[in-house]
Amino acid sequence: MSSIEALGYTPFFSAQFELLPESHTLRPARVSAESHGLFQLLGCEATLGELSGKLRGQLKAIQRPVSGDWVAVSEQGDRATIRHVLDRRTQLVRRAAFSDLPQVIAANVDVFFIVTSANQELNPRRLERYLTAVWDSGADPVLVLNKIDLVDDAAALEASVRDVAGGATIVSVSARTGQGMTELESLLSPARTVSFIGSSGVGKSSLANRILGQELQATQDTSSTAKGRHTTTRRELMVVPGRGVLIDTPGMREFGIIDDEGGLDTAFADIAARAQHCRFRDCQHESEPGCAVLAAAETGELSPERLTSYHKLKREVRAAQARQDPVLAANVKRRWKSINKAMRRRSR
Ligand SMILES: Nc1nc2c(ncn2[C@@H]2O[C@H](COP(=O)(O)OP(=O)(O)O)[C@@H](O)[C@H]2O)c(=O)[nH]1
Ligand SMILES: [Mg+2]
Ligand SMILES: [Zn+2]
């Protein structure tokens, strides 16, 4: 495997690159971090790049390169000019806390490890939110329950999130003792990009460090309080030799759902499956007669909290769509991909 392939340069990207009219004068590179309009690059000679003037004028905010993006650059020594941003295979989008605008957290991630801390109260509602966003992104989610060294019954904990997880794999680990790390690491593979998301202090950087086998990421010891302190200041992309690519994201206080309904229907595949038996095709499962979803909530087959959470996220998606940037319409393809995934899962 060449070094650029080890960075995750698959035919999806090389095919796009080779179709660029001036591809013989350019090189592919992967963005590992971004700060104030300067992009850290891997895979080419230059280590830092800037957008070409033309791109600066053309790109919508959501199209600007982020950690994980593949770009085509021309180089002048250690500096590069980014001439093209290759189409993303996946993108994780959230609604930014203050501006309300869509913000891409990471691009071209294959698997998101959604990390929660086993000792803080596990919040199923937050997990549903992350799962929705990850299914929307086009990547696969894995639920990671970290810090199991601090709990007595890890199996009970896993059982408590199984309904919420749906089709997602659940892995219990401890970044401190290394317990469960073999299972987590078995999900890595060369040329595949994985990333950790979750609230601050759940142990994302500690897990990344474990995998890398060295202290590349800043973590901070915060004594015995459940809440660790936020120490990651920017996203970073790292190659784990022979085992793929890893992107660490900063902790996010809020994760506003912005995007399609495909992710929601995948994260709530249990509700989507029942909805097929509602009397009305466009049933909103609020108060309609013959609603199979409400019936399931009444019998306790479906937890009322989960239904409430579904409604809440759905409203959030609607509100976001009403303000939506037209560029997001490009996500239609990904939405169908994730709906198809849900269908496959349901029919299994
Ligand atoms: N007991 C215990 N503490 C952990 C574990 N993983 C991380 N921590 C601690 O939790 C705090 C936050 O970890 P960090 O990796 O910086 O979290 P991040 O904000 O998600 O990147 C630090 O004090 C870590 O030492 C674990 O598995 N067990
Ligand atoms: Mg961190
Ligand atoms: Zn219904």
Topology:
Blueprint: H1 3-6, H2 11-19, E1 27-35, E2 38-42, E3 48-51, H3 53-58, E4 70-76, E5 79-85, E6 91-95, E7 102-107, E8 111-117, H4 124-137, E9 140-146, H5 154-165, E10 169-172, H6 181-185, E11 193-197, H7 204-212, E12 236-240, E13 244-248, H8 262-267, H9 269-275, H10 292-299, H11 304-322, H12 332-347
Parallel strand pairs: 3-5, 8-9, 8-11, 9-10, 11-13
Antiparallel strand pairs: 1-2, 1-4, 2-3, 4-5, 6-7, 12-13
Bound molecules: guanosine-5'-diphosphate, magnesium ion and zinc ion.
Residues 275, 278, 283, 285, 288, 291-293 line the site of zinc ion.
Let me know the average pLDDT: 85
* CATH architecture label name of the largest domain: 3-Layer(aba) Sandwich
Kindly estimate the percentage of residues that lie in beta strands according to DSSP.
15-25%
Q: Which CATH class of the largest domain is shown?
A: Alpha Beta
Number of helices: 12
Shape: globular
Return Rg in Å: 21 Å
Q: What's the total number of strands?
A: 13
The number of domains: 3
**Secondary-structure element series:** HHEEEHEEEEEHEHEHEHEEHHHHH
Bound small molecules, which ones? guanosine-5'-diphosphate, magnesium ion, zinc ion
As residue ranges, the low-confidence spans are 217-233
